[in-house]
């Protein structure tokens, strides 16, 4: 999905920490919460579209969405973890 060479040069725009591709299980969990209307990004806006994938910050506290194979590395689009339960 994302070129490994691109992942090597990407970093969190806020903390400059390294990032990696989020595990599919985590993306699925976040997407369930999105479908339940329980996810708000750091800009304060509800996330309405499921993620195609995600970039995970090294500390495991923040996800950056991937949409149409493009990582959205904007602080206001980031999703803080853990997300509220989809239940």
Which secondary structure elements does this structure contain, and how are they paired or packed?
Layout (H helix, E strand, L loop, with lengths): L3 H6 L9 E3 L2 H12 L17 E5 L4 E6 L2 E2 L7 E2 L7
Antiparallel strand pairs: 1-2, 2-3, 3-4, 3-5
Walk me through what this model shows.
- With 87 residues, this protein is of the alpha+beta class.
- It has one domain.
- It has two helices and five strands.
- Strands 1, 2, 3, 4 and 5 form a five-stranded antiparallel sheet that branches.
- Strand 3 (62-67) and strand 4 (70-71) form a beta hairpin.
- The longest helix is centred in the middle third of the chain and has 12 residues, at 24-35.
- It is globular, with a radius of gyration of 12 Å.
- The N and C termini lie far apart (29 Å).
Which features would summarize this protein structure in a list?
single chain; 87 residues; alpha+beta; five-stranded antiparallel beta sheet; globular
């Amino acid at each position: 999905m994302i070129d490994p060479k691109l992942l090597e040069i990407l970093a969190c725009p806020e903390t400059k920490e390294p990032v990696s591709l989020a595990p599919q299980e985590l993306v699925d969990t976040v997407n369930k919460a999105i479908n339940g209307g329980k996810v708000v990004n750091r800009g304060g806006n509800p996330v309405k579209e499921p993620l195609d994938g995600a970039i995970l910050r090294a500390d495991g506290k923040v996800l950056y969405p991937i949409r149409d194979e493009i990582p959205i590395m904007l602080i206001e689009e980031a999703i803080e973890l853990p997300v509220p339960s989809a239940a």
